[in-house]
Structures are given as structure tokens and as C-alpha cells.
Amino acid sequence: MSNDLMRFSVAMPEELLMRFDQLVARRGLAKNRSEVVRDLVRDALVEDECATPGVEVMGTLTIVFDHHASDVQEKLHNIQHDYFGNIVSTLHVHLDQHHCLEVVILRGETGLVQTIANLILGTKGVKNGRLVLTTAGEGL
């Protein structure tokens, strides 16, 4: 992708522009409207790419589970071993006497990564979780 910048104009309602300027201000650090628009466009393009079947993605799956639930840790470990080629790493944190947070780093084709995440999220004892996908964003 070329580093040459192209100008274009955007028309929007005043209220929306005011809220956008507040977003720019919250992001701070030398961010201006143009930089924030570029960031938003890149985010949308990566999100669209991640939704495309067959694309190689990376993801983080963050889950909270009750480690006293029946065999939950063993079931999670079995899934992780079944997909060792796609599970790059895990981080385990004890939240309290009963609950743990685990972050699982995944890599692979979109559908497979989502399948693995669904297996983990569907494990009895997993209370909640969220999968966040991204790509290398080549050319962005």
C-alpha cells in the first residue's frame, strides 16, 4: 500500500461530528481526525477480513470459569491438547477461591479458530468469554 495520502471530504450531522471530536480528544496523543478515520477504516477492513472464510487469523479467547465445576480444567486441557497446532499459548490467572481467568491465543483458518473457541466457550463450568480476531493487516 502506498504511503501517499489522498484527501476526501466527509459530510455528517453536527452532533455526530461533535461526538467524533470527543472521541479524537479521548484518544489523545497527537491523534487528529484524519488519523482516527484511518484507524477506524483499518479496523473495519480487518474485521471484514476476519469474517471471510478461509482467512488465516489470530485471536485471543478470554474466558472466566469456576475451577470447582466438574472436570472443567481437564476438559479445557483436553481441548487445548486436541488443537495444540492452533493454540499458541495460554495465560491462567486465579481471580478468587473459585474463579479463574484464562486467555487462550489461537491461530489458524477463521472457521477452525471459531470452532475451537465455541468448544471452549461451550464447556460446562465456563461462565463467560469473548473471542477477538485479527489479521496481520498486510497492506493497511
Automatic annotation (TrEMBL):
Describe the location of the Transcription factor NikR nickel binding C-terminal domain by residue ranges. 58-134
The protein's matches in Pfam families, at most eight in alphabetical order, are given as: NikR_C, RHH_1
Q: Could you tell me what the cofactor note in this record states?
A: Binds 1 nickel ion per subunit.
Q: Which residues bind Ni(2+)?
A: H81, H92, H94, C100
Transcription regulation as a keyword of this entry, yes or no, is yes
Q: Mind listing the GO biological process terms from this record?
A: response to nickel cation
InterPro entries attached to this UniProt entry: Acetolactate_synth/TF_NikR_C, ACT-like_dom_sf, Arc_rbn_hlx_hlx, CopG, CopG/NikR_regulator, Ni_resp_reg_NikR, Ribbon_hlx_hlx, TF_NikR_Ni-bd_C
Single GO MF descriptor: DNA binding
Against PANTHER family, the record matches this protein to: NICKEL-RESPONSIVE REGULATOR (PTHR34719:SF2)
What this protein is called in its record is Putative nickel-responsive regulator
**Encoding gene (name):** nikR
